[in-house]
Recover the amino acids of this structure.
C-alpha cells in the first residue's frame, strides 16, 4: 500500500511569488490534514478535510493560504503571495476513521513533507 | 485546550544505554497520545499510541511508553539504545476532532 506522498519535496521561491503544494493521501482515507513546522517551533495544525469538505481550518494563518481537496482525493495548499515567515516544512497526513465513532481517534499517517524556503 | 511539553530538546545517550524521552500533556478530555519519530530526510513515522486501553504501550523498534494519568505523563523508553535510533521524536495528543497537538520535539543522539 502506498503511503502519503507530497510534491514537491523542496521549493525555493522569492517573497511575493505563489507556490502550490500537493498531497496525495493513502487510498481510501477520507481524512486529510495539513500541518506546518516553522524552524525551531512545534509542528502545528493547519486544517482538516473530511472528503472534500473543510472540517476544521482553525490553524490557517491568514487568507494568503488556500487549501482545496476537489473530489475528495488529493489536496493542494496554495500560498499567495508568499512571505518570509511562511518558510518551513509542510506536512500532510491522512487517516481513515472520522471521529467520533465511539470516540475513536484514528492514527494519522504522515507524508515526508515539503520544505518551503521563501527568500 | 490541549498541550504537550517535551522536556529536553536534545538528549544524548551512549549506545546500549537506556533511552528516556519525557512527555507531559494537558487535556480536558480523555487523551489519545502518540509518539512519532522523524529520521533524517524522512517523514513522521508512528512509534506507538495510547488509546485508553492498556497503560503500557509497546511500539516498534523496541520502544514503549507508559501512560500515567496521575502524573499526566507519557514518557518514551527503550532499554538499550542503538545507533539507528538517532532521530527526532515527537509526542502528540489528540482529542475529538482528531487534530494533533505536538510537543516541540526531542533530538536523540546516540554515541558509540
Amino acid at each position: 500500500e502506498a503511503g502519503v506522498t507530497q510534491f514537491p519535496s523542496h521549493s525555493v521561491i522569492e517573497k511575493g511569488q505563489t507556490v502550490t503544494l500537493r498531497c496525495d493521501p493513502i487510498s481510501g482515507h477520507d481524512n486529510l490534514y495539513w500541518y506546518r513546522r516553522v524552524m525551531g517551533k512545534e509542528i502545528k495544525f493547519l486544517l482538516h478535510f473530511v472528503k472534500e469538505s473543510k472540517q476544521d481550518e482553525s490553524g490557517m494563518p491568514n487568507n494568503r493560504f488556500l487549501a482545496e481537496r476537489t473530489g475528495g482525493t488529493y489536496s493542494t495548499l496554495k500560498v499567495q503571495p508568499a512571505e518570509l515567515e511562511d518558510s518551513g516544512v509542510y506536512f500532510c497526513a491522512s487517516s481513515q476513521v472520522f471521529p467520533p465513532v465511539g470516540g475513536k481517534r484514528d492514527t494519522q499517517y504522515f507524508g515526508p513533507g515539503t520544505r518551503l524556503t521563501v527568500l | 485546550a490541549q498541550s504537550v511539553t517535551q522536556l529536553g530538546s536534545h538528549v544524548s545517550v551512549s549506545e546500549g544505554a537506556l533511552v528516556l524521552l519525557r512527555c507531559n500533556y494537558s487535556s480536558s478530555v480523555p487523551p489519545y497520545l502518540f509518539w512519532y519519530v522523524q529520521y533524517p530526510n524522512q517523514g513522521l513515522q508512528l512509534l506507538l499510541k495510547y488509546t485508553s486501553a492498556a497503560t503500557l504501550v509497546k511500539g516498534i523498534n523496541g520502544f514503549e511508553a507508559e501512560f500515567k494519568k496521575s502524573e499526566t505523563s507519557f514518557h518514551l523508553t527503550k532499554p538499550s539504545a542503538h545507533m539507528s535510533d538517532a532521530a527526532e521524536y515527537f509526542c502528540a495528543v489528540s482529542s475529538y476532532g482528531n487534530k494533533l497537538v505536538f510537543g516541540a520535539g526531542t533530538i536523540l543522539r546516540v554515541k558509540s
